[in-house]
Amino acid sequence: MRPSGRKLDELRPVSIEIDVMKHAEGSCLIRMGETHVLCSATVEDKPPPFLKNTGLGWVTAEYGMLPRATNSRTRREAAAGKQSGRTQEIQRLIGRALRAGVDRSALGERQIVIDCDVIQADGGTRCASITGGWVALRLAVNRLMKAGIIVSDPILDHVAAVSCGVYAGQPVLDLDYAEDSTAGTDGNFIMTGAGRLIEVQMSAEGATFSRAEMGRLLDLAEAGNTMLVAAQKAALG
Known about the structure:
alpha+beta; five-stranded mixed β-sheet; 32% helix
């Protein structure tokens, strides 16, 4: 029995509310159970310096967690004067994931920055950030196309992410914190809407896993990805 009472292959309740920020070119609030992330997209009219005069655009991300997103207060990283290694790793992951679904030539020489701010954390914040970040990106690109700034849609496919792991000896989909903190194996699966893999992060947490177990987790991730892409489509209408 999972702590939440969910079935082994059951996602937490997912909701995506779009256009929640007045000034952002694209924004959404994604809720995956008790994990809530505010995602926004900002269009900048020039690419980073290393892409100047290449004709290519760029998608990047920044990630942060509010002090009381967790059970006890976490000090703001700005107060410490630097980002943690975990924060840097997560925002690079979000950027890599979203760029995999973009034709950077069609985007042109501009940059879209995706900001993911965790309001409340209960496991799976990076997966929720990627899934919601794609929706914010899609909305920003829609605005560029409507304004005639770009003529060819640079979005190649949906991008979504979900966690899977081995909890109490059973493969489960979409771990919450109670499961993630004690899972024998934990993995994050980032995929396109067509089911192609972008990135897989897997590690044993005190118990090794077999190739067959990894296959079962991948099967769960594919099913979860299908449900998340459906949620993205429903939110966008």
